[in-house]
Amino acid sequence: MREILIIKDPEIAKLFADETRRQILHRLRHRELSASDLAEALGKSHSSILHHLKLLQDAGLVEETRVERRRNLVQSYYRSTAKMFIISYTLTETLGDMEGFPWSREVLRRILDGLRDMGYVYPEEEGGRVLELVGACYMKEQRALEEIIERQTTPIKADRHIYFAITRLLTMLKLSGDEEYMRMMGELRELLRVPTGEGENGS
Q1: CATH dotted code for 2-84
Q2: What gap in Å lies between CA 15 and CA 17, rounded to an integer?
Q3: Digits of tens for pLDDT over the chain (203 positions)?
Q4: Could you tell me the end-to-end alpha-carbon distance of the chain, in angstroms, rounded to an integer?
Q5: What is the distance between the alpha carbons of residues 133 and 188, in angstroms, rounded to a whole number?
Q6: Any idea where the domains of the chain sit in the sequence?
Q7: 102-191 is a CATH 1.20.58 domain
Q8: The model's pTM
Q9: Among 55, 58, 62, which Cα is nearest to 29's?
């Protein structure tokens, strides 16, 4: 199983718009399961799960790991082909308006709601600008991460947490040299404020 798989085919990326398929992939990242296991866990019919598994398998997102035979019953087990799937930043214009994708305006607005929940506020009239900056920064982070991953030539002999720590570090190092990214982050820092007695910015 690969650590990260970058999805660049728009037709495959569209499969992630379905909540049931996302739930299936989430569970199969951790352990192999049968269609019956998934149907019970997700509260779906067996035939529905088989349909979703077929779509995911044809797209290369899921693979059959083994077949178990018990008397007259034959049961296949599946797992995802990667521990994490990333929808490529190159699909922004194609899929940007679809619910469930990181760059959709609805998801970005939820991020803004989450910022408020974390205690960060910003001038109401600057909401559009904050939304724009968050989206633009995310896209730059996504592009940098993809470039780091695609540069990898040999498997890293480390556990998952170390792998993600390495890719995050290299992504941040790459972005630290991007003047536009640093400027946008600086502007975000000025706009986002924590309502404290001292009135500190972004702390």
Answers
A1: 1.10.10.10
A2: 5
A3: 788 888 889 899 889 888 899 999 999 998 999 999 999 999 999 999 999 999 999 999 999 999 998 778 889 999 999 988 888 877 765 665 555 555 566 777 888 888 888 888 888 899 889 988 988 898 899 889 988 888 877 766 767 788 888 889 999 999 999 999 999 999 999 999 876 654 445 44
A4: 39
A5: 7
A6: 2-84, 102-191
A7: no
A8: 0.66
A9: 62
